Amino acid sequence: MKNDAPEQAPSPSKDSNKVYFLILVIVALLGTNAYVFLKDKKSEDKVVTLTDEKSRMEIEIDRIEAELDRSKTSNVNLSAELKEGQELARVKINELRDQLRRGQLTEGELARAQKEIKDLRTFVSKYTADIVVLEKKNVKLTEQRDSLQTTVANINERASMLEKVNTDLSNKVKVAAAIKVANIAVSAVRIRNNGKESEVTRASTAKRLKIRFTVADNSLAQHGEHEIFIRVIDPDGNLITTNGSDLFDADGDQLQFTYKTNIEFDNSFGKLYSIDWDPIQPLKKGEYTMVLYADGYTMGKTVFGLR
Q1: How many domains does the chain have?
Q2: Membrane-crossing residues (predicted)?
Q3: pLDDT digits (tens, 9 = 90+) for 52-107
């Protein structure tokens, strides 16, 4: 006969231990999950912060480069120092862009990049200010140059006007200083065998023309010797010349002459001058014109006839 013994109930202390253990495990798991979550969240926040800062830095670099580009279009001549500074700034911009394109920056790299951008901004601000100063100076210099050019143009114009006035006055003085005939008379003479002269009216017997004249009073005329040129036009309208290549200047033209000589002028009132001219060819019948020139201008003119 089998003797069944009664079963014993589980111990309450053992069950409690299991519960406590499970609770501890759950708490540990929750703690681990919380730690991992917070760590991942902190890392994620850090990456987001770095990414945002990189974006801000890229925008700042774009602004700095745009400011450099604007200053490049200014119409000023940059000094060697400013040109060198501009080139260095562009090199630094390219370096910073390369750093930002690499990916995530460490906190140290980010801090260095931030400082370099700050320094770059300081330089570009000063660079831009220097450009503005140069532009103002350039505008002022341009105004001074334009004013100077206007002044020079006015001076040149006045000088030209004065030169013209002086030339006109000089020409007027020359005209006024040229001696002029007051009275003139021409007579034909023949020369006898004994050398004596007698006036004639026939062309066939005329061997010499005697030109007698007085000079008008002229205090401006130079005292001393004056060269006299004579042109004799025959009845056919031809100039009588002794040498076709001889020319002189008078009244703005170059002219041939018939005869030339000198007189001594001292502005004596009523002084009579006499010039003799012996033609080398026989004279024709008819009316002759004689013009005298002195000092580059017409001195006087007369008409006479021979039968």
Answers
A1: 2
A2: 20-38
A3: 777 777 777 777 777 767 666 665 556 566 667 667 777 777 777 777 776 656 66
Considering 138, 170, 190, which residue would you say is the last residue of a domain? 138
Where in the sequence is the domain holding 47, given as residue range(s)? 15-138
Structural domain contains residue 154? no
What order of strands is seen across the sheet that includes strand 208-215?
Answer: 197-200, 181-191, 208-215, 272-277
- What is the rounded distance in angstroms from the CA atom of residue 190 to the CA atom of residue 205? 6
Q: Residue 85: is it exposed, middle or buried by C-beta count within 10 angstroms (0-12/13-18/19+)? A: middle
